[in-house]
Amino acid sequence: MSLAVLEAPAAPIRFAPRQTPEAMAPAASSKPRCSNCHLRELCLPSGMSSSDVMRLDGLDSLMFARRRMRSAQTLYHEGERFQFVYAVRSGTFKSSLTLADGREQVSSFHIAGELMGLDGVAQGNHASSATALEDAEVCAIPYAHLTELAAGSSGTQHLISRLMSREIVREQSLMMLLGSMNAEERLAAFLLNLSKRLKARGYSASEFHLRMTRAEIGSYLGMTLETVSRTFSAFQQQRLLEVDKRHIRILDPDALAGAFEIRVH
Amino acid sequence: MSLAVLEAPAAPIRFAPRQTPEAMAPAASSKPRCSNCHLRELCLPSGMSSSDVMRLDGLDSLMFARRRMRSAQTLYHEGERFQFVYAVRSGTFKSSLTLADGREQVSSFHIAGELMGLDGVAQGNHASSATALEDAEVCAIPYAHLTELAAGSSGTQHLISRLMSREIVREQSLMMLLGSMNAEERLAAFLLNLSKRLKARGYSASEFHLRMTRAEIGSYLGMTLETVSRTFSAFQQQRLLEVDKRHIRILDPDALAGAFEIRVH
DNA sequence: CGCATCGTTGAGTGAGCTCAATGCATGTGG
DNA sequence: CCACATGCATTGAGCTCACTCAACGATGCG
Description:
Keywords (chains A, B): DNA-binding, Transcription, Transcription regulation
Organism (chains A, B): Rhodoferax sediminis
InterPro entries (chains A, B): cNMP-bd_dom (IPR000595), cNMP-bd_dom_sf (IPR018490), Env_Response_Regulators (IPR050397), HTH_CRP (IPR012318), RmlC-like_jellyroll (IPR014710), Tscrpt_reg_HTH_Crp-type_CS (IPR018335), WH-like_DNA-bd_sf (IPR036388), WH_DNA-bd_sf (IPR036390)
Largest sheet of chain A: 4 strands, antiparallel
Helix content of chain A: 25-40%
Strand order of the largest sheet of chain A: 1-8-3-6
Oligomer: homodimer
Order of helices and strands of chain A: HHEEEEEEEEHHHEHHEEH
CATH architecture of the largest domain in chain A: Sandwich
Pfam families (chains A, B): cNMP_binding, HTH_Crp_2
Shape of chain A: globular
Domain HTH crp-type (chains A, B): 181-254
């Protein structure tokens, strides 16, 4: 296993002129359908039978609505009642917890096609908060509908289990990272994971724009923002990266991967 | 949330003379039944309807067998095909990953009544290995049977989802610990969590015997075995603990809790 | 324009790491 | 039963990586 470590961090990268929320608005009036969605290969439907996807599409649109988010808006807060699972349509989110001293601990980043909110199933309340790191759009999927669907379809039932299990595995990898890697290894793992996820979505694997601050990266990786910044500079001096604020170009992915040769077996 | 952080670590503590595996052997010949099990309140059946438990009991015993383990034996290896979920009947286990350099990363500890192996659902292979830290006994529950049961019972379906989600939440807390706590806070959190879990099983919350080495604790908490040892000594000097090798007595649980006042909200 | 946010860099410090020695308990074989 | 080996825990000494505190520039927003 090659460190799924960071199946979580993310940043949707679009170099094409960004659509403004206004430009995208008209589309929202039509009923969203999984079967038409450009993310159906990556998102929830990828593990569902076409008949189940159609059943999902057939559900009341009020209960399965798109929701437009502005940067810095919070989709749900920790402790809030858990009702929906959210699929990211566009934009980037962070999941985080607030510690007693006011500091926040970022537990994951989510990009287009990824699901958020499954941690709420355990208690019926969200265990973390989800905040948009840029203007974004999500599909709100009522969890009750999903379980209803699952009741009649072992395929969908398995899908939900697999998605949750994947989350468990992802977090195990992150624990590994936090427990046994130094600053350079952590940042390298983060960037390579991000790169991989972007590539799967058709974006460039070697050049992208980070949507999160140094502080957020640091919180996620268990280091301070200063150390993140210094490590970026170090990578640049080693000619592994070109860094211009949040714009990243990976020059030597292999050397970067070599920075964290922590592989199993 | 009061740091579920360590819903994982553990150590079943029995001061009563330990039964030898031989002494327990005869019991194994009878068909194990959840409905009789002394752990039914804690284990899988706690979230199931009695009719579902009976259906679980009705399944072929060959497919739902107890398995006796010797200390240091491995129940399953990472990468191995995922077929069973295991419930710990007695003894303690660790889950771990092996890093490229040969070091092991412990990702959780499991005590009686706890489930292991759900990380295998994602890929169909176990993502981690499970090793007995002492002589132990598990129930092997075929995952296929569980999903079959779930197909006909939304209650069991929800239970599986809840168990997985709980695992996600647990790991999030651990990430929080690894990302933002110092050595004393980590060890305090570990001990208090362990204490809580033991108490739930009827053991003393204030005095127990660790089944894992300092190195294993260190791996789990992201620190070296020397630091674990020094931190135990420091707690002892602060009169928070009495430590004699693996025997622990918590003298001042409140002060210990104060050592990691990292609570949400 | 002024203020806030973000990122970079420097200097000094310290928590936890590495390396090493020692003690204790247990197991094994002569 | 003793000699020896092995595994685990403790403790010390020194070092280093990442932290804290601080200053400063760039960017963007009201």
